[in-house]
Amino acid sequence: xxVFVTGASGWIGSATVDELLAAGHEVVGLARSERxxxxxxxxxxxxxxxxxDDLDALRRGAGDAEGVVHLANKxxxxxxxxxxxAERTAVGTLAEALVGTGRPLVLAGGVAGLATGRPGTEADPxxxxxxxxxxxxxxxxxxxxxxxxxxxxxxxxxxxxxGHGDHGFIALIIAAARRHGVSASVGDGSTRWSAVHxxxxxxxxxxxxxxxxxxxxxxxxxxxGIPSREIAQAIGDALGVPVTSVAREDxxxxxxxxxxxxxxxxxxxxxxxxxxxxxxxxxxxxxxxxKAGAYA
Length: 296
Fold this sequence. Notes:
The chain folds into 2 domains: 2-159 and 196-222, Rossmann fold (3-Layer(aba) Sandwich); 166-195 and 224-268, UDP-galactose 4-epimerase, domain 1 (Alpha-Beta Complex), CATH 3.90.25. The model has no long low-confidence stretch (mean pLDDT 96). The protein is built from 12 helices and 12 strands. It is globular. The longest helix has 19 residues, at 80-98. The strands form 3 sheets. It has a 7-stranded parallel β-sheet with strand order 3-2-1-4-5-6-10, sandwiched between helices. By secondary structure, the protein is an alpha/beta fold. Helix 3 (55-63) packs parallel to helix 4 (80-98). This is SDR family oxidoreductase. Residues 116-136 are annotated as: Disordered.
């Protein structure tokens, strides 16, 4: 299959490109910079220069492909409105290019806010609806194209897709521990994060592209819910610093913007995804990665 990948040089995107190439697919990666383009060329992928605001490039990439994997996002935490706007416009552009083809559009989503008091499941609809909602409500936008002949599939990622080289949420929490000389959880540390290793996440994206039916919601979740106090303890052990807790009202000051997320319960199940795609995570767990020095 000829696959157009946005975010092809990013954390999850790079691993997904490797996974797709290893499985025999042709990959065309969207690249903003010469450095990203060179990296993709070196892997054996084709390159389409452009970014999320280059709608002509997105149309060309999707129109010439047999499948699309959308993993790019501006992640501008200082201007979420702009990130959401760009995301919604990009997804709408990609979907319009695939109308009537029956071809797959796999797009990234998350598990936050799916349920209260229990792990979120694939049956839970995304609460993000409309342009002003997180990610511009793109999961619901994309799934709305199923009736227009697009095999839309939402790949919902755990709040941490971890591994050596990760610079995402866990790296930010560890940076706060180094900065303050203590590793902290929020409140009583009972809130939970689901987690998945990068290799397992990339394999899930490939399987979703190849096999998932139109309208499927997939959960890239290997560990259903790790209490934040256990995450803090693993970080403290790895760094050799004391472990403590911070009050919820002090979380943003202590951690930065990530404090608002670390205090959220984001447990999620992947039981349906595993059965649907015969997907069995095999990578190391989050605490194992932290203790083994993946973030050293």
